[in-house]
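During the second half of the funding period, the structural biology subgroup turned its attention to how the target accommodates small molecules. The most pressing case was calcium ion, which had performed well in the primary screen but for which no bound structure existed. We therefore specified the complex as follows and requested a full 3D prediction, including the ligand pose.
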Amino acid sequence: MDRRDFLTDLTRTAALAAVVPNVWRVTTRPRLADDPFQLGVAAGDPTPTGGVLWTRLAPRPLEPEGGVDGQRVVVTWEVADDDGFRTIVKQGRATAVPELSYSVHVDVDGLAPDRWYFYRFRSGDATSAVGRLRTAPAAGATTPLRFAVASCQHYEQGLYTAYAHMAREELDLVTHLGDYIYEYATIPGRVRQHAGLEIRTLDDYRRRYALYKSDPLLQAAHHRCPWIVTWDDHEVDNNYAGSFGENGMESDDQMRLRRAAGYQAWWEHQPVRVPRARSWADLDITRTFDWGALARFWVLDGRQYRTRLACNGANDVVPCGDWADSARTMLGQRQERWLTDGLASSRARWQVLANQVMMAPNDAENGPVTRVSMDQWSGYPVARDRLLRAIADRAANRTVVLTGDIHTHWVNELHTDFSRPDRPVVAAEFVGTSISSGGDGNASPGDSQSARNPHVKWFANRRGYISCRVEPGAWTAEYRTVPFVTRPDAPLETPTRWRVTHGRAGIERL
Ligand code: FE
Ligand code: CA
């Protein structure tokens, strides 16, 4: 009997009417068509005493409501010292509701700092996979940190082999810099049902997350350690800026509705601790994380508050239009002040910017003219120089900018002022390539790029990620690549390694 028939029967039976509210509100014994934990589990936003544990009930991930039948469902969670769950240190119950696509976010507290825990969920007879949570070191500690930088995982453009390798590394954290999903699908590859059309509604975005999160290699990387996640454009719409969409055809209202759908689905599918807003369209995901006294991570949102793209909105010759207008902003005034004030007050050894688009300029044209991308920081040159001067004043040569978006690996030195490239180097930018977006890539060393852009120290057009080791005196970045993503089982390669010495200008090749 399905739920609709069941309720109809109940209303015919006066003696049973009293139980209807309970049946309706919540069940501890859901009747589910299949394993509800097919999207795996995740942990994120670690603190010294806890972190956020995530799952979503979805017995039929690509069906509306993930195949749950509309009831609210009780989910129990457990945190243990051991992966056999013999010593459970925390446990509790959460309710998965249809309004939030049966996602579960548990903000665990009361754990010990600087150690590993295991967690899992149960619902009815089903038990989830086991994930690992590492708590951050206590305030003041300088425990070294190992973490990976990931971004851009277009499902149809390649396999997530890089995540299989990442899951084998000894990592404390993963930072994901956005393009976790794509709102379009250009190459009918692994799935065909989404090709061509852009998604716009909450249900569309939910189904897109369900598709991506069904990948076992992505799940393996989530199960391995906590993640710190931000978003870029494709979580909503390619190259959007504030309430301006890619094609400029949508009204302000339409873009806000689309943002609300994209932001809600993002929240439902990520292990994040961010305050809920009155409207999902205004969800504020900017936040900080401390790894003891070693590093402070600034999780930035370079999409929601930015000024509309200048000039032709793509690659354009500069100067042009209002490109150099000082009122144009990438982060918005409030976020920019929060970041620059914070750089002055933070005592952490390293300041880390979890950033979306490339901060270093990339002049794409030979000869005397300069052509740059309007979607990158190069499209907001006054805001960029303002931020770099703040870094120079407050955290010179102990600031590392982590960047995604561009689907290629880069090592960039950041100068105080790119309008005067003779100015000193004050920060390092490590740009991590895509996990899968763009397909196999090639072995081009990109030398011509370096001639036009002397601050670019290395470049590669391969898929992969960056593996970082952070210590009080030095930051090492190992660039990982896979030679192909259109076939399974690509081996892992480490074509280059770089080091930033705390307090010293420049990036050194190892
Ligand atoms: Fe991307
Ligand atoms: Ca992007």
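Two results from this model are relevant to the next phase. Residues 252-269 form the longest helix (18 residues). The pocket of fe (iii) ion (ligand 1) is lined by residues 152, 179, 234, 405, 407, 434, 437 (CB under 6 Å).
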